[in-house]
Amino acid sequence: MLRSKLIAFSCFCAIALSFIAQADSTDDVFWRYWQQQMSAKKLTGDFLQEKHISVLSKPLISKGSFKVTNDKIDWVITAPVAKHFVFDQNGVIDQSKSVSQTDAMGNNQALKQFSAIFRPLFTGNKEQLQQFFSISVKKLNEHKWVLDLRPKDALLRKGLDNVELIINQLVEVIHVTETNGDKTLIKLLNVQTHTYQDRKSG
Amino acid sequence: MRLRFWGWLFSLFIVCTLLVIKLQQEGVIETNIMALLPETEQQPEINNLASEFISKNNSRAVFLFGNKDKKIAIKAAEEFTHKLRQSKLWKNTVLRHDRAQQQAFYHFYYPYRYQRLTASQQQALKSRTLVDWEQAIQQQLLNPTQMVSSRLLQSDPLLLFNKQLQHLSPATSTQLSLVDDLLMVEAKGVYYVLISSEVTFDVFNLRLQHQAVVSIERWVKHLQEKYVSTEAIYSGVLFHAEAGARNAQSDISFISIISIIGIIILTRVIFRSLQPVGFCLLTIGVGVLVAFTLTSYLFDKVHWLTLVFGASLIGISVDYTFHYFTARQAEAVNFSSKRVIQQITPAIGLGMLSSIIGYIPMMAAPFPGIVQIGFFSASGLLAAFLTVILFLPYLCEQPSSNTGFLNQQFLLSLHQYHLHCASKKSLWGILILCLMGALALFINLPVNDDIRLLQQLSPERQWHDQQLKALTGQNAISQFYIVTAETEEALLEKQEKLLIELAPLIKKGALAHARSVVQWVPSKRQQMSNLKLLNLKMPTEQLRLLLDKLGFTADAKQKALAAYQSQLKISSPEKGTEVSSLLTIHHWFSSSVSQYMSNLWLGKYTQGYAAVVQLTDVNDLAALRHLTDKDSDIFFISKADDITTVLSRYRQLIVKLAFMAYLFIYIFLGWRYGWFKALFIMLPPLTAALTAIALVGTLVQPINLFNILAFILIMGIGIDYTLFLQEDKKRRLSTYIAILLSAGTTVLAFGLLSLSSTNAVQTFGFTVLIGILLAFLWAPCSLRKNTRSCLNDSDVKQNDMKQQTKRFSV
């Protein structure tokens, strides 16, 4: 009797472990896949942003282009206003002002943190993302994945509910939901990848 | 006579007892360079306020722990913080800045968003049209970095608070970021974690500062062994004070030891015995002991700089002992210690008196440091003199077992040669030429009285400061304003006015930044003015139009307008009623949000209220000082520059006092020797001192107050030489050897100061070294008459006996 219980328990453990291993491997497969997509590449493309603020009757729509190189993002808004932001390790620079926004503000810690959160959404830096978010990965099909990012930090959690990334080979949609119901949808269009070699030869 | 011996011994016993009592007191040795200052000519209250602020700032220290692995850097910082918190020497240690504290900023200041408009917001209100406002708000809404929520938009539709919030963070540096509640900075792949703390004691307390720094170094070493490749950077006045004290102590030990070794060797060579060394040490010991005790009682604390100069006192006080021993050494038969003392007393007494007269201007200077040095030297010399004349005749009654001098013939020849050269016109010619040259150079000598020359900053500590500045942008505060007013409100208003005046200077680069409490708590007048400006430029109707343009829903618009209206009502209170919705300094202080900047508010003092406007990276002192001309309640404080100015003034003053002192000495010598002879006695040391200063000032480095001190010492010692020669009518070899020994020991003692790491002390050493050598060389010139022969002491006796026999035979 005891023997049969032990065998049954062992089988259960083996099955459970195989599921856990499979779960881990799903994550690993995704990160390997994304890293492979992003490694030694720069991204360029356009974006369309819809900001749904509950006190405004209409969403705020803006569009522009972006460029991701290494750990730096150029975010150029072309309409309805012209703005050019650069996100890098030092924070955020408002190029359209031709003065660092950091300098203009006198204190950049919030901007630095924002930049640190914003950049890995595009670059797929797992470590950086994990620093701020708990991540769950869901596979939709062979090239399509959904990442659900939930903020770890209590202060961030107060304002931000979650960030959803839809990845179709590369990031396709960023969906930010705030705790007060406001939502921001960023669609990345015409995204192209370039290797650095292309750039050099170009 | 024996009674005098016991009397002096009893006096020394009292001095020793007093010293023991004094040493029970903490911090008898002063290491604070500021203590060299006289009471500045500002109001004492302002001085106290400035000292209070400086003292608070001095107690602060900042530590950075860095590692390529962020987790290791955090671990090291956490362990170090734990050590600091366990130590009684440290308080208010901050590593983590909790989120509740950050939220407190938001909750505290948000209700005052309309009262606390920034300068750019005031400007925007004055100049923007409705369309401008619409675009500006839209830009903020589209800015990916601005997380504008609907709640915020409804309660702050002009989005004023976001801008204001950026100035309110605990991270005062632009390079630091708040990550996981820690202030961090990343450079070249290394993550640094910042810890701030304060010492619980006066940073200039020698014992505690040493204890604190040693434990910090031990903890850092332990952490660096535990976590390989961990960097530790720490900065604060404590570390500079400790390095300065350590440096001064090693200077004192080194100079004293080498000086004593030199004296021992010289004495051994001349006397073939070490017995005089013991008595030299006794004389020196008594001199320093009495000087230290009296100075510590008179001034409460003895400055380390006084001790550096005091160590040099060794060189002078042995002269008196040497005079006794050279005279004793020369007497082969019928030695009488009392007779020898009587023989040398006029010479050493005159020397001692002229030296003390030379120190009088130092003691009269309104500068505690100089007075202390003058008093220390004078009292030490007097004590040493008394020891020689009261102790030596009893402690050393027996004649020397090795009479005569080693290489006596050589010394006699040297003596003869020196006197011969002095009698020639050529040496006089050189002396006159040097005097003229020195006077010519003296008129245009470069001067530099910068107090920083007195405190040689340790290169290691400078490296730490530079690293900290590069990583965090934080810099030591050296200049600030103290603003005073009768009421708190007036004080805030004055600071606001001052900040407005500083703004163009910041643009010009006269300074990098100014920080004041009014940047957190504006005056009531300013708050009311802001509300009135909003009422005038953005009345409710105008805002309604703007919200329509932005596309607010009807419900949101109603709520936003109602909230706005209620806030703006404060701007027109009923007459005689106090506006309770304004931010007050008391409310600010009652909240924890004030903790980062509360040190800038000095609060109530005897004549009203005071606050500090802190300045960073000041480049144009004159422009900043000029701002105080307009308001007598604003004081510009720049201690180091104030001290430099004072040093400069006192250098000029002491030069005048010194020349006055030499006039006294000249009168004193003129009374004894006649005016013409007195001139010849004074001319060689005067030329030596002037030449030394001119050479050092032209070739080594610009002169400062300490070169003038050297001048006084050269004059004092140099006059001794000419006096001793003058007093010895028989040109005894023993007198010459005493001078030779004196010059040798003085050069050893003072010349060694040129090895000091403190610039001012070093130039002092150089000046005395050159001056004493020249004073010795030119001393026989004072004899004027052509001295063809000189005698050793036995010859003198034989001559005396021959003369007596002749008289008898006649």
Automatic annotation (TrEMBL), chain A:
Residues 1-23 form the signal peptide. Keywords: Lipoprotein, Protein transport, Signal, Transport. InterPro entries: LolA/LolB/LppX (IPR029046), OM_lipoprot_carrier_LolA-like (IPR004564). It holds the Pfam family LolA. Transmembrane segments: none annotated. It comes from the Bacteria. Monomer. This is Outer membrane lipoprotein carrier protein LolA. It comes from Zooshikella harenae.
UniProtKB/TrEMBL annotation, chain B:
InterPro entries: MMPL_dom, Mycobact_MmpL. SUPFAM superfamilies: Multidrug efflux transporter AcrB transmembrane domain. Its main location: membrane. It is found in: Cell membrane. Residues 207-396 form the Membrane transport protein MMPL domain. It is a multi-pass membrane protein. The chain crosses the membrane at residues 252-271, 278-298, 304-326, 347-367, 373-396, 427-447, 653-671, 736-755, 761-779. Keywords: Cell membrane, Membrane, Transmembrane, Transmembrane helix. This is MMPL family transporter.
